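Case study 2.
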Amino acid sequence: MTATLETGTLDAAADTAAGWHRVCRLEDLEPSWGEAALVAGRQVALFRTGAGEVFAVAHQDPATGSHVMARGILGSRGARPTISSPLHKEVYDLVTGECFSTPGLRIAAYGTRVSDGFVEVQL
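Prediction:
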C-alpha cells in the first residue's frame, strides 16, 4: 500500500502542518498484520492490533537497514505491544521504539490516531 495525503479541507491542511498525515481507512488494515506505506516521503510500517488500535514504526529494520518491518511478528511483553524483526528477531516496543533484545538499537515510533474512520500518522 502506498499512502497519499488526502487534502481538501482547512482542517486537513492544519493537521499536516502539525505533522499528522492521513494514510488509509482503518478497514484497509487487516488485524494482526502489517502494511507498509509511504508517508510524506518516509517508509512506515502500520499495525492494527485491535478493533481501532493502530501503531506505526519505521519500516527500516535498525539492525540490517532492510525495509522489512511490516512483515515482522506482532507480540507483547506484558501489556506492551511489540514487533519482532522478520530477519534477526530483535523485539521492539511499538509505542516507544525501544529494543528489548539488543541494547542500543531503537526503531522510530510514530503517533497514530483514527479520525472519521481514517488512520493518521504523526511524523
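Helices lie at 10-17.
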